[in-house]
Amino acid sequence: MDRAIDLTGQRFGRLIALHRVENVKPARACWRCQCVCGTEIETLSWSLRSGETKSCGCLAREIARLTQRNAAAANTRHGHTRGGIISKEYEAWRHVTARYGDIPLQWQRFEAFLADVGPRPSRARLKREGLSFRWT
Description:
By secondary structure, this protein is α+β, with helices and mostly antiparallel strands. It has helices at 45-50, 58-75, 88-99, 110-117, and strands spanning 11-12, 15-21, 30-35, 40-44, 81-82, 85-86, 126-129, 132-135. The strands form 3 sheets. The protein has a 4-stranded antiparallel β-sheet. The chain has a two-stranded antiparallel ribbon with strand order 5-6. A two-stranded antiparallel sheet has the order 7-8. It is rod-shaped.
């Protein structure tokens, strides 16, 4: 244990090296570290010094949570497909675009369709009149 670099008290990302522990394998220095969240872990010296290990795992979980939140916000355009529930307007748009080939070009996007036909009145159905559609 005397050849290893002393990392006691040094900070590596969210980890602070507390003390050296028994080697996992020969010539593989291992350290007990405490994360800023309070969790203690054991990891290899090279993993700390190379930056491969930066936390007890709380950093990866935090990044995943933020990434999911940001991805959900970035993918939300119109709010008509939330939590697996599809609005009647969105359902009508999907039906129209799948069934008719001669829809207006701008209706390739749901937002344009919604701007043209407006929100669906209670119990109304979408009716085709020539090349246009309206709620009846």
